[in-house]
Amino acid sequence: MFSLITSNLCLLRWNIFSCTVCCYSLLSLLDKTNCICNRSQPSKTRRRRKMADEQKQKLVAGLESSPKYIPVSYKYDEIGSRLQKESCEHNHDYYITASELSILQHNVQDIIPDVPNDLTLVDLGSGDCSKTRFVIKELLKRQKTLMYYPLDISGEFLIKAAKSLKDDFGDLLEVHPIASDFIQGMEQLKRIKGVKLVLWIGGIFALPYEDQISKLKLFSTIMTDQCRLVFTAEITQNREDILKAYNDNTGLKRRSNLNGITRLKREEGSMIDLDKFSYHLDFVHNTNPEFMSYVLSYIEANDDVQFPIPGLGKDLEMKKEEHLYLHEGTGLSCKYTLEQLQTIVQKSGLRLAGTLIDKEKHVAFCSCVTG
Ligand SMILES: C[S@@+](CC[C@H](N)C(=O)[O-])C[C@H]1O[C@@H](n2cnc3c(N)ncnc32)[C@H](O)[C@@H]1O
Asked: Strands (DSSP E) along the chain, which ranges?
């Protein structure tokens, strides 16, 4: 159930939690990085190889399916993560980042659960961790030290972000970056004791519906009854605003969406020529409480085409007008009504304790508890 409390920012919000100002503590970032990601060189190498093999299997499965697709997570290498960040920062029609930041700047205390214990902060799909800085600062007002576990599939990007945090917060923060995908990362996060505040900011946008549910279910496995999972979801329903945001003048969103294809060229030696395709985006509105609205993005072959992808040991073969989707599933960048949000959280076995919505009504911070 959603609690409605009106503030001077006109926010829909859950119960507000107070905080006390404290001081801070430390740990060596790189030691801790090794502790989590690098117990021994052979296991690190094995894990990387396993991830690379799994990624190739997923790519082949996507290119062999009907319709064809490239898994959306594949676009997030270092270049893709940078493009994603730049497209959020420089595309002024992309309202989501501004809405998320507005809540984090003005109401961050409202996403922190009111528990007597110190919290451990877990950040899933942390990117450059810039939004999480607001949460870190707030938590450091109420507890002496903070253990912070950012997890991201983009290892290089993550380590840079973790180092920058270490430079800025020094001894005040223990940073334990986990360069991993969600599934493998959960095994490491399960070992962490204590009450966790688990953030998943800007992550659900990039996943197909069924995958969102399975990720929420997966994340719930690291939670005990006092823990909170806070994720952001988009609630915009205006078609014009949405298409403007995704077809931006800067072209950054398009480059970010197409990074999976250009990465195939960089890493798998593919010769895919994007000039032989047209790029498309569409918004599909759906008010069914069991589902959501979403954006489709795909490239369409202008003619029959065949491009070898040596690294995958197969060719991309497409008929004229055939689509290659830039994501798996029905669609991505999902937009929800509040009812749809309650449904998805319920389907994942969690309970929606509250939502915090910006005054433009673009984004909801959704606070979930177990059971
Ligand atoms: C849209 S960005 C959000 C970044 C950051 N949380 C923010 O809001 O600025 C999504 C992030 O999730 C990461 N990601 C995507 N799929 C992932 C997966 N399967 N496992 C781990 N990280 C993933 C990407 O690398 C990317 O940094």
From this structure: 68-69, 119-124, 146-152, 173-175, 178-179, 195-200, 228-234, 277-284, 293-301, 305-309, 314-318, 323-325, 332-335, 350-357, 363-370
pTM: 0.78
Residues with CB under 6 A from ligand 1: 73, 76, 81, 84, 125-127, 131, 152-154, 181-182, 201-203, 206
What stretch of H or E contains 239? helix 239-246
Q: What is the pLDDT of residues 257-316, one digit of tens each?
A: 999 999 999 999 999 999 999 999 999 999 999 999 999 999 999 999 999 999 999 999
AA letter at 154: S
Closest residue by CA, ligand 1 atom 16: 73
Task: Tell me which residue has its CA closest to atom 20 in ligand 1.
Answer: 181
Percent of residues in the chain assigned helix, strand, coil, to nearest 5: 45, 25, 35
